[in-house]
Automatic annotation (TrEMBL):
It comes from the Bacteria. It comes from Staphylococcus equorum. SUPFAM superfamilies: ACT-like. Pfam families: DUF3388. Residues 11-86 form the ACT domain. InterPro entries: ACT-like_dom_sf, ACT_dom, DUF3388, UCP021288_ACT. This is YmfK family protein.
Amino acid sequence: MTVATKKEWYLEYEITLNRSGLLGDVSSLLGMMGINIVTINGVDEGRRGLLIKSDNLEKVSRFENIVTEIDDISITKLRKPELRDRLAVRHGRYIEQDADDKKTFRFEREDLGLLVDFMAELFKEEGHKLIGIRGMPRVGKTESIVAGSVCAHKRWLFISSTLIKQTVRSSLIKGEYDSNHVYIIDGAVTARESNVKHQELVKEVMSLPSIKVVEHPDLFVETSDYEMSDFDYIIELRENKNQEIHYEEMKKQTVKSKNNLDFGNDEFGGGFGFFE
């Protein structure tokens, strides 16, 4: 006997008439149609999102047709679940996505849990993926990358970093070449680094079929052969929605370093603790 494979769908509906028992009625209707509810949560004001499973597309279509006759709700989304859909149901809100540049996602510091979850899901994907993360110092960029790696059960390696102390790698040992690793590059540190071996290592790492995360990607592309179009995702992390991300001071430090001048008091080169 062959058992039909159940497929997941993302269902989102807007509540047009909020009355007691509405959620129970929707759940009962899905049950009568032979559609299972995997997860349900409010995803926006006046909206609910559900991950549902069904062994038959016709059942889902019939449910959609029936709901058009109900005045209390209106379906806003019914599709195969995307990553943003899964995270919206899990966290009760959608990740903010740039209206023009669909690969850019915005987070605030209070969203670190959602950000870590988002990164972990990206890190679980196989093959090459280049992710850039923008943000001012001490907002939680590096710590979020590390936490996302832990959640994805992947090892992380710093190619360049300012976490705890400044790190600039010029080589990797045999065991550090692994497609299951997350390679972390601080674009500000690498941009001002004149060590040829370090720059060669960065090029080598960028060619590996693995996850690479570049902090300060705008500075990174200014001093490398890469372009912003090479990035698969851009993440912006702010203390609050009004904080501006600017690089004037970082660029000054990069110029100082290129001219072999001291930048020991560099605000952008000092270490910092986890989520401080």
